[in-house]
Amino acid sequence: MPYKEILLERYDSIALLTLNRPHIRNALSHHKMVDEVEEACQSLQDDYSCKVLIVTGAGTAFSAGGNVKDMQNQEGMFRGHAGEVRENYRKGIQRIPLALYRLDVPTIAAVNGPAIGAGCDLACMCDIRIASEKARFGETFASLGLIAGDGGAFFLPRAVGHSKACELAFTCRVIDAGEALRIGLVSQVTDPQELIPRCMELAREISRQPAGALRMSKRLIQFARGKPIEDTLELSAALQAICHNTPEHREALENFLTKTL
Fold this sequence. Notes:
Layout: E1 6-11, E2 14-19, H1 31-46, E3 52-57, H2 68-73, H3 82-91, H4 95-102, E4 107-111, E5 114-116, H5 118-125, E6 128-132, E7 136-138, H6 152-160, H7 162-171, E8 174-176, H8 177-182, E9 188-190, H9 195-207, H10 211-224, H11 229-244, H12 247-260
Parallel strand pairs: 2-3, 3-4, 4-6, 5-7, 6-9
Antiparallel strand pairs: 1-2, 7-8
């Protein structure tokens, strides 16, 4: 589909998805943007030549989350009585966390600026987060009398742990990139000009691995969260059996033995 509210670029096996609504700081509550993010994720899931997805925002913000003006005017996904708004969330913005969670391709959030509310949660939906020094993070729903309707209660504790997630959600405090690094919300902080190059460097390092092993590794890590060791080992054995019978494994073995003998 032709994209209007995102950009999707390819650099060999690396995809770069840019939220492209800088005039409203890449707000996520527009139905068309949800459609496009979902479709882009599905297209990359179906494309086995894609090994890594980088997600970033156009302009000065990563994403400011929901459109507060639409909330005030009760427009778009915020229109209607409680039952209608519930369905708007389910059929709207909640498709983004599902699309990213179901995507087997490893994902990197290149957080170029403020990531507030649903924007913070979007960063947490990615497997790895690298922040510009200009990045800011805030789980600020409660300050508007709201909760994280986009799945933040699932993703944020997995990123920073239960206690710190509660602190951020209950205080609505906005933290800078340095504190985000200290609490483990991001793994690196870079100069703003180096953000995309650094993410591309990491993506190229990841993309040197076989596509099948990358996808299964991501799925196994996601599955293992909160699962008993027995269930994790069972899935590990099944996926490993598949890996042992792939051409990529045989080729990697031959290359390894050639180098060491």
